[in-house]
Amino acid sequence: MSILNMPFKALSDPTRRKIIQMLKERDMTAGEIAEHFNMTKPSISHHLNILKQAELVIDERKGQNIYYSLNTTVFQEMVNWFFNITDKKGGSIGEED
Amino acid sequence: MSILNMPFKALSDPTRRKIIQMLKERDMTAGEIAEHFNMTKPSISHHLNILKQAELVIDERKGQNIYYSLNTTVFQEMVNWFFNITDKKGGSIGEED
DNA sequence: TAGATATTTAAATAATTATCTAAATATCTA
DNA sequence: TAGATATTTAGATAATTATTTAAATATCTA
Protein backbone atom coordinates (compact mmCIF):
# COMPACT_ATOMS: atom_id res chain seq x y z
CA MET A 1 0.00 0.00 0.00
CA SER A 2 1.22 3.44 -0.90
CA ILE A 3 2.76 5.66 1.72
CA LEU A 4 0.26 8.30 0.65
CA ASN A 5 -2.73 6.21 1.67
CA MET A 6 -2.96 7.50 5.21
CA PRO A 7 -2.65 11.19 4.28
CA PHE A 8 -5.27 10.81 1.56
CA LYS A 9 -7.64 9.11 4.01
CA ALA A 10 -6.87 11.75 6.63
CA LEU A 11 -7.78 14.60 4.29
CA SER A 12 -11.01 12.97 3.13
CA ASP A 13 -12.76 14.28 6.24
CA PRO A 14 -13.95 17.93 6.24
CA THR A 15 -13.30 18.39 9.95
CA ARG A 16 -9.71 17.33 9.49
CA ARG A 17 -9.25 19.61 6.47
CA LYS A 18 -10.57 22.49 8.51
CA ILE A 19 -8.11 21.66 11.30
CA ILE A 20 -5.30 21.71 8.75
CA GLN A 21 -6.37 25.13 7.56
CA MET A 22 -6.52 26.44 11.10
CA LEU A 23 -3.01 25.14 11.76
CA LYS A 24 -1.85 26.85 8.60
CA GLU A 25 -2.57 30.17 10.32
CA ARG A 26 -0.91 29.32 13.63
CA ASP A 27 -0.02 26.46 15.96
CA MET A 28 -2.85 25.63 18.34
CA THR A 29 -3.58 23.48 21.36
CA ALA A 30 -6.02 20.60 21.19
CA GLY A 31 -8.45 22.60 23.31
CA GLU A 32 -8.29 25.68 21.09
CA ILE A 33 -8.91 23.53 18.06
CA ALA A 34 -11.87 21.80 19.74
CA GLU A 35 -13.47 25.18 20.52
CA HIS A 36 -13.99 25.75 16.80
CA PHE A 37 -16.17 22.68 16.32
CA ASN A 38 -19.55 21.42 17.41
CA MET A 39 -18.02 18.21 18.58
CA THR A 40 -16.71 16.73 21.82
CA LYS A 41 -13.03 16.92 22.71
CA PRO A 42 -12.53 13.16 22.38
CA SER A 43 -13.82 13.38 18.81
CA ILE A 44 -11.35 16.13 17.99
CA SER A 45 -8.63 14.16 19.71
CA HIS A 46 -9.47 11.23 17.44
CA HIS A 47 -9.20 13.44 14.36
CA LEU A 48 -5.91 14.89 15.55
CA ASN A 49 -4.60 11.39 16.04
CA ILE A 50 -5.46 10.45 12.47
CA LEU A 51 -3.70 13.57 11.18
CA LYS A 52 -0.71 12.69 13.34
CA GLN A 53 -0.53 9.10 12.13
CA ALA A 54 -0.64 10.42 8.58
CA GLU A 55 2.29 12.67 9.51
CA LEU A 56 0.38 15.75 8.43
CA VAL A 57 0.74 17.32 11.86
CA ILE A 58 3.21 17.22 14.74
CA ASP A 59 2.28 17.41 18.40
CA GLU A 60 4.37 18.77 21.24
CA ARG A 61 3.45 19.00 24.87
CA LYS A 62 4.10 22.28 26.66
CA GLY A 63 2.98 21.98 30.25
CA GLN A 64 -0.67 21.07 30.41
CA ASN A 65 -1.22 21.82 26.75
CA ILE A 66 -0.41 19.85 23.67
CA TYR A 67 0.36 22.07 20.70
CA TYR A 68 -0.36 20.93 17.19
CA SER A 69 1.43 22.25 14.13
CA LEU A 70 1.64 21.41 10.43
CA ASN A 71 4.25 19.06 9.03
CA THR A 72 4.50 20.24 5.44
CA THR A 73 6.72 17.39 4.21
CA VAL A 74 3.88 15.04 3.36
CA PHE A 75 1.86 17.86 1.80
CA GLN A 76 4.72 18.36 -0.62
CA GLU A 77 4.58 14.69 -1.58
CA MET A 78 0.86 14.96 -2.16
CA VAL A 79 1.35 18.00 -4.38
CA ASN A 80 3.78 15.89 -6.38
CA TRP A 81 1.14 13.20 -6.77
CA PHE A 82 -1.27 15.76 -8.20
CA PHE A 83 1.39 17.21 -10.46
CA ASN A 84 2.05 13.76 -11.80
CA ILE A 85 -1.63 13.46 -12.69
CA THR A 86 -1.99 16.95 -14.11
CA ASP A 87 1.23 16.81 -16.12
CA LYS A 88 1.36 15.59 -19.67
CA LYS A 89 1.33 11.90 -20.56
CA GLY A 90 4.18 9.76 -19.29
CA GLY A 91 5.30 11.76 -16.30
CA SER A 92 7.97 10.68 -13.85
CA ILE A 93 8.97 7.03 -13.63
CA GLY A 94 9.10 4.95 -10.51
CA GLU A 95 6.02 6.47 -8.93
CA GLU A 96 4.51 4.16 -6.35
CA ASP A 97 0.94 5.25 -5.72
CA MET B 1 -19.89 21.80 2.54
CA SER B 2 -16.94 22.52 0.34
CA ILE B 3 -17.06 21.71 -3.33
CA LEU B 4 -13.83 19.79 -2.82
CA ASN B 5 -15.40 17.33 -0.42
CA MET B 6 -16.42 14.79 -3.01
CA PRO B 7 -13.08 14.77 -4.85
CA PHE B 8 -11.20 14.41 -1.57
CA LYS B 9 -13.44 11.50 -0.55
CA ALA B 10 -13.10 9.98 -4.00
CA LEU B 11 -9.30 10.01 -3.84
CA SER B 12 -9.19 8.52 -0.35
CA ASP B 13 -9.60 5.05 -1.82
CA PRO B 14 -6.49 3.33 -3.28
CA THR B 15 -8.46 1.54 -5.99
CA ARG B 16 -9.80 4.86 -7.23
CA ARG B 17 -6.36 6.48 -7.13
CA LYS B 18 -5.02 3.61 -9.18
CA ILE B 19 -7.83 4.08 -11.70
CA ILE B 20 -6.92 7.77 -11.95
CA GLN B 21 -3.31 6.87 -12.66
CA MET B 22 -4.34 4.39 -15.32
CA LEU B 23 -6.51 7.02 -16.98
CA LYS B 24 -3.59 9.42 -16.90
CA GLU B 25 -1.84 7.11 -19.36
CA ARG B 26 -4.80 6.64 -21.70
CA ASP B 27 -8.59 6.62 -21.86
CA MET B 28 -10.01 3.20 -21.07
CA THR B 29 -13.29 1.33 -21.09
CA ALA B 30 -14.91 0.16 -17.85
CA GLY B 31 -14.05 -3.42 -18.82
CA GLU B 32 -10.39 -2.67 -19.45
CA ILE B 33 -10.17 -0.91 -16.13
CA ALA B 34 -11.83 -3.81 -14.33
CA GLU B 35 -9.30 -6.27 -15.79
CA HIS B 36 -6.56 -4.62 -13.74
CA PHE B 37 -8.21 -5.36 -10.42
CA ASN B 38 -9.09 -8.36 -8.31
CA MET B 39 -12.61 -7.15 -7.98
CA THR B 40 -15.95 -7.69 -9.71
CA LYS B 41 -17.15 -5.38 -12.45
CA PRO B 42 -20.00 -3.99 -10.37
CA SER B 43 -17.47 -2.96 -7.72
CA ILE B 44 -15.36 -1.15 -10.29
CA SER B 45 -18.50 0.41 -11.72
CA HIS B 46 -19.27 1.73 -8.25
CA HIS B 47 -15.79 3.25 -7.96
CA LEU B 48 -16.08 4.81 -11.41
CA ASN B 49 -19.39 6.31 -10.41
CA ILE B 50 -17.86 7.95 -7.35
CA LEU B 51 -15.04 9.38 -9.47
CA LYS B 52 -17.64 10.63 -11.94
CA GLN B 53 -19.78 12.29 -9.26
CA ALA B 54 -16.64 14.00 -7.98
CA GLU B 55 -16.07 15.23 -11.54
CA LEU B 56 -12.62 13.70 -11.61
CA VAL B 57 -13.49 11.62 -14.67
CA ILE B 58 -15.79 11.88 -17.66
CA ASP B 59 -17.59 8.97 -19.30
CA GLU B 60 -18.64 8.64 -22.90
CA ARG B 61 -20.39 5.73 -24.52
CA LYS B 62 -19.01 4.48 -27.83
CA GLY B 63 -21.09 1.58 -29.03
CA GLN B 64 -21.11 -1.17 -26.44
CA ASN B 65 -18.27 0.37 -24.51
CA ILE B 66 -18.16 3.26 -22.09
CA TYR B 67 -14.87 5.11 -22.18
CA TYR B 68 -13.56 6.85 -19.12
CA SER B 69 -11.11 9.74 -19.22
CA LEU B 70 -9.66 12.27 -16.78
CA ASN B 71 -11.24 15.64 -16.17
CA THR B 72 -8.27 17.68 -15.01
CA THR B 73 -10.25 20.76 -13.93
CA VAL B 74 -10.96 19.55 -10.43
CA PHE B 75 -7.42 18.26 -10.02
CA GLN B 76 -6.23 21.82 -10.63
CA GLU B 77 -8.49 23.07 -7.88
CA MET B 78 -7.12 20.44 -5.53
CA VAL B 79 -3.56 21.46 -6.34
CA ASN B 80 -4.57 25.00 -5.41
CA TRP B 81 -5.88 23.75 -2.06
CA PHE B 82 -2.50 22.15 -1.36
CA PHE B 83 -0.62 25.23 -2.49
CA ASN B 84 -2.66 27.31 -0.11
CA ILE B 85 -1.58 25.01 2.73
CA THR B 86 2.05 24.81 1.70
CA ASP B 87 2.44 28.51 1.02
CA LYS B 88 3.52 30.94 3.69
CA LYS B 89 1.10 32.29 6.30
CA GLY B 90 -1.94 34.20 5.15
CA GLY B 91 -2.29 32.89 1.63
CA SER B 92 -5.14 33.77 -0.69
CA ILE B 93 -8.32 35.20 0.72
CA GLY B 94 -11.80 33.96 0.14
CA GLU B 95 -10.89 30.27 0.16
CA GLU B 96 -13.88 28.14 0.95
CA ASP B 97 -12.67 24.73 2.09
C1' DT C 1 -0.36 15.98 48.15
C1' DA C 2 -5.20 17.30 46.75
C1' DG C 3 -7.76 19.54 43.45
C1' DA C 4 -8.13 21.75 38.97
C1' DT C 5 -7.26 21.82 34.04
C1' DA C 6 -5.94 19.72 29.52
C1' DT C 7 -5.94 15.93 26.87
C1' DT C 8 -6.20 11.13 25.63
C1' DT C 9 -7.85 6.28 25.83
C1' DA C 10 -11.51 2.80 26.04
C1' DA C 11 -15.75 0.88 24.92
C1' DA C 12 -20.10 1.25 22.71
C1' DT C 13 -23.03 2.66 18.94
C1' DA C 14 -24.43 4.84 14.68
C1' DA C 15 -23.34 6.04 10.09
C1' DT C 16 -20.87 5.37 5.96
C1' DT C 17 -18.52 2.73 2.55
C1' DA C 18 -16.87 -1.33 -0.11
C1' DT C 19 -18.00 -5.47 -1.87
C1' DC C 20 -20.65 -9.26 -3.63
C1' DT C 21 -24.46 -11.77 -6.40
C1' DA C 22 -28.38 -11.31 -9.27
C1' DA C 23 -30.96 -8.74 -12.39
C1' DA C 24 -31.61 -4.92 -15.65
C1' DT C 25 -30.27 -1.94 -19.61
C1' DA C 26 -27.93 -0.78 -23.86
C1' DT C 27 -25.72 -1.95 -28.02
C1' DC C 28 -24.13 -4.87 -31.67
C1' DT C 29 -24.54 -8.64 -35.04
C1' DA C 30 -26.18 -12.74 -37.29
C1' DT D 1 -35.59 -10.20 -33.60
C1' DA D 2 -32.64 -13.42 -30.73
C1' DG D 3 -28.38 -13.98 -28.72
C1' DA D 4 -23.98 -12.15 -27.28
C1' DT D 5 -21.22 -8.63 -25.04
C1' DA D 6 -20.46 -4.48 -22.06
C1' DT D 7 -21.87 -2.08 -18.34
C1' DT D 8 -24.81 -0.48 -14.69
C1' DT D 9 -28.35 -0.81 -11.01
C1' DA D 10 -30.44 -3.00 -6.95
C1' DG D 11 -30.31 -5.20 -2.77
C1' DA D 12 -27.77 -7.44 0.83
C1' DT D 13 -23.85 -7.86 3.90
C1' DA D 14 -19.37 -6.96 5.88
C1' DA D 15 -15.94 -3.69 7.08
C1' DT D 16 -14.56 0.79 8.33
C1' DT D 17 -15.14 5.22 10.39
C1' DA D 18 -17.12 8.99 13.25
C1' DT D 19 -19.08 10.07 17.35
C1' DT D 20 -20.41 9.81 22.13
C1' DT D 21 -19.92 9.07 27.33
C1' DA D 22 -17.05 7.57 30.97
C1' DA D 23 -12.67 6.79 32.75
C1' DA D 24 -7.62 7.37 32.73
C1' DT D 25 -3.24 10.07 32.40
C1' DA D 26 -0.37 14.16 32.74
C1' DT D 27 0.69 18.57 34.44
C1' DC D 28 0.15 22.59 37.27
C1' DT D 29 -0.69 25.08 41.62
C1' DA D 30 -2.22 26.09 46.25
TrEMBL record, chains A, B:
Pfam families: HTH_5 (PF01022). It comes from Lutispora thermophila DSM 19022. SUPFAM superfamilies: Winged helix' DNA-binding domain. InterPro entries: ArsR-like_HTH, HTH_ArsR_DNA-bd_dom, HTH_MetalResp_TranReg, SdpR-like_repress, WH-like_DNA-bd_sf, WH_DNA-bd_sf. Residues 1-90 form the HTH arsR-type domain. The lineage of its organism: Bacteria, Bacillati, Bacillota, Clostridia, Lutisporales. One of its GO terms (molecular function) is DNA binding. This is Regulatory protein, arsR family. Gene3D superfamilies: Winged helix-like DNA-binding domain superfamily/Winged helix DNA-binding domain. It comes from the Bacteria. Keywords: DNA-binding, Transcription, Transcription regulation. NCBIfam families: HTH_metalloreg, repress_SdpR.
